Amino acid sequence: QQGLRGVIIAKVTPGSRAARNNLDGGDLVLGINRKVVVDLADFRAQMGARPAPLLLTLQRGAARGELRMD
Predict the structure, then answer these.
(1) Is 17 helix (H, G, I), strand (E, B) or coil?
(2) Collapsing DSSP states into helix, strand and coil, what is residue 28?
(3) CB 54 within 8 Å of CB 31
(4) Which residues, including other chains, have CB under 8 Å from residue 8's CB and lie 6 or more apart?
(5) What pTM was estimated for this model as a whole?
(6) Bridge partners of 66?
(7) 28-32 and 63-69 as β-strands: parallel, antiparallel, unpaired?
(8) pLDDT tens digit string along 8-56?
(9) Dihedrals φ, ψ of 24, to 5°?
(10) What is the SS3 assignment for 31?
């Protein structure tokens, strides 16, 4: 979709922090702590700069929501 921003989770490793917090492959991360994620570089910078817990804004299929990630 044109103008869509964020990062798609390609794969979630069993037992990882992402798996423990119910992220799935195909989830689209739109924001971290209510700050927009523009691209992969921005995602990595925001993840590295934020201590746990994190509040992720996600799109999964047609549904959007927030997920607290410890």
Answers:
(1) helix
(2) strand
(3) no
(4) 26, 27, 28, 29
(5) 0.85
(6) 57
(7) unpaired
(8) 999 999 999 889 999 999 999 999 999 999 999 999 998 887 677 899 9
(9) -125, 150
(10) strand
